[in-house]
């Protein structure tokens, strides 16, 4: 998806009265990230940027501080070595922490998800570290494999929270439309081929939705899709780094 493709799609979302979330992978790596975000802000669409906060250009801060923009990030430890071990990047703890502190200082709403990956991981200490920076919206979760098909098997829709496709959807970097970021194997169409409104009104979309249990699934406390804007917990995907 080019910058123009995303801007057009966000225009469609604006006409529908939607709010959007930029997620990945890492959304700030898109070459037109600033252009897409500026277009979203100009349209008055509320937007959350889910980013690892590793590489934030100085020129972006003014845009990120605009009304209607918020940030979300994944967090792993209060120890730099453990944080780097999980993200695979030396210095990721220091850079992400510094950018969290800067965002809070600029008054940008920030939420964080602490993802449990390692045995003995300092999850509670990591939470205290974040709160010491002024982050008040912190959720603790654990890594899961939803959205990433296992070799020789197919993900189980029963593991989804049950809210996928319920006034929400996800569009991948290639334009594929799925019920949410956690149901990446349920492709209903592609916005580069046909309009979004046609896709969500089509048979493939309906077929996917009937596979997702809507009742009887009680999410564990760390999932809690009813919090943080009723969105699924993308922070539970470690490869968001």
Automatic annotation (TrEMBL):
Species whose genome carries this gene: Acrocarpospora phusangensis
Keyword Iron in annotation: yes
Keywords: Iron, Iron-sulfur, Metal-binding, S-adenosyl-L-methionine
Boundaries of every Radical SAM core domain copy: 18-126
Every 4Fe4S-binding SPASM domain range: 161-223
Endpoints of the signal sequence: none
GO MF entry, a single one: metal ion binding
Lineage start: Bacteria, Bacillati, Actinomycetota, Actinomycetes, Streptosporangiales
Annotated InterPro entries: 4Fe4S-binding_SPASM_dom (IPR023885), Aldolase_TIM (IPR013785), Radical_SAM_PqqE_MftC-like (IPR050377), rSAM (IPR007197), rSAM_sf (IPR058240)
One protein family per Pfam: Radical_SAM
Record's protein name: Radical SAM protein
């Amino acid at each position: 998806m080019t910058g123009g493709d995303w801007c057009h799609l966000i225009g469609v979302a604006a006409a529908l009265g939607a709010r959007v979330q930029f997620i990945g992978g890492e959304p700030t790596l898109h070459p037109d990230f600033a252009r897409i975000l500026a277009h979203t802000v100009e349209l008055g669409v509320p937007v959350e940027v889910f980013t690892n906060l590793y590489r934030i250009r100085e020129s972006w801060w003014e845009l990120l501080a605009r009304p209607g923009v918020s940030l979300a990030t994944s967090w792993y430890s209060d120890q730099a070595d453990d944080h780097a071990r999980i993200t695979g990047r030396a210095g990721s703890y220091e850079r992400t922490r510094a950018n969290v502190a800067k965002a809070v200082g600029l008054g940008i709403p920030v939420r964080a998800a602490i993802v449990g990956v390692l045995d003995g991981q300092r999850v509670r200490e990591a939470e205290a570290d974040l709160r010491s920076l002024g982050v008040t919206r912190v959720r603790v979760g654990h890594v899961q494999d939803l959205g990433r098909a296992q070799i020789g098997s197919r993900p189980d829709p029963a593991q989804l929270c049950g809210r996928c496709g319920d006034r929400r959807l996800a569009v991948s970097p290639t334009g594929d439309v799925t019920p949410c970021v956690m149901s990446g194997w349920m492709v209903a169409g592609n916005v580069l081929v046909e309009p979004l409104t046609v896709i969500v009104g089509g048979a493939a979309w309906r077929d996917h939705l009937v596979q997702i249990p809507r009742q009887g699934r009680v999410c564990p406390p760390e999932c809690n899709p009813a919090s943080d804007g009723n969105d699924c917990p993308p922070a539970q995907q470690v490869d968001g780094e």
